[in-house]
Amino acid sequence: SSGLVQCGEYSNQVLSDGKCRLVATLPQLDEQRCPDLFRCSDEVSYWLHQNEERKQQIMELQETVSEVQEELRNHRHRIKALELQHDDAGTQNSSLEHRVHELEQRYSEANTLLHIHASLIYDMQAQLHNLSLQLEKAHRTPLCTPSSGTRPHRGQEEARHPEVTRVQNCPVDCASMYYNGIRRSGVYTIVPSIRGMPTEVFCDMDTEGGGWTVIQRRQDGTVNFNRSWKEYKMGFGDLHGEFWLGNDHIHEITSQGDYSLRIDLEDWNNKQKYARYVSFSIEEEANHYRLHVNGFSGTVEDSFAWYHNKRSFSTPDTGNICAEISHGGWWYHQCFFANLNGVYYKGGRYNAKSRNLLGPDGVVWYSWKNSDYYSLKKVRMMVRPRNFRPRLSP
């Protein structure tokens, strides 16, 4: 022990006379010291002060607890509100998920329909293309029934206008196409009355009233005209470019009636001339496609009819020396004044020695250039019924 005596219990009371009574329970007497009343008073004061501080702290703690409780209630309200919001959000999310699922289904359906429509469009385009081809073919070949026999029976009026009466049946040439309402140049199908076999031809509906069936064209040298007898018989080349229609076809067309011939020429200075012949036809293959041409007129001197009329057709493979030298198929006669199926030389002038030639072989019309060694730039041969008359409207 430190020797200090602790104060005991105490109490204070206000008496009726206004005086205070202090009662303190003193500690046990020490063997050496009496109780110190003043020290106990100090301790009492200290305890009182501590007691007040404890009360104040308790009150502050109570306030703090109240605030915490209030805040806790607020938090509980907020939590409840958040739970409600969460429930609403869950409901909204569920609704959104359902909506997204519906949209995905619609997208899948739309995508499927898109593929189906694309397939249908592709099929329709293919059908449209086929219909266009059929329409073009029908446009080129009006509906008709080919005539039977070698020549259809014609009355006096029909004989004067063969190209008109044939339209009622099948178009036998480009003049028939013209009278049937066709006014645009291009490739069409005709049915010559000799054999009644459909034949594609190029129709010129612009030159001198139209109605021309083109039987030959040279324009750029893209087609080789040094061909065999069989090739000249059947025809070769491109109807939109350079070609020879074919001796069989030319014979069939010009044997249907009286036909005239027009030859268009162009040199390398872009000057143009033409030759017209009132009558033109060739015989059948058995007679070597013998030429019949006369009645010349035009803007260039004649180099064809006066020299080549009634000559047989020949090609390099038939043994004809002129055809071999001239490298083409033509109605040669010692050898030519016109050689429209000859070799195509760009620029016009060509030299036999420099090319190691036995003689001239170009695309020649002698009377225009007074030379066998000037090859023309463009040539076109076409036929039309002699009595053809253009119309102002179909």
UniProtKB/TrEMBL annotation:
The record's annotation in InterPro entries points to:
FIB_ANG-like, Fibrinogen-like_C, Fibrinogen_a/b/g_C_1, Fibrinogen_a/b/g_C_dom, Fibrinogen_CS
Task: Give Gene Ontology CC terms.
Answer: fibrinogen complex
Report the locations given in the UniProt record: Secreted
The record's PROSITE patterns line, in alphabetical order, gives: FIBRINOGEN_C_1 (PS00514), FIBRINOGEN_C_2 (PS51406)
Tell me the domain of life.
Answer: Eukaryota
Q: Which Pfam families match?
A: Fibrinogen_C
Q: What name is this protein filed under?
A: Si:ch211-203k16.3
- Which organism encodes this protein? Latimeria chalumnae
Q: What is the lineage of its organism?
A: Eukaryota, Metazoa, Chordata, Craniata, Vertebrata
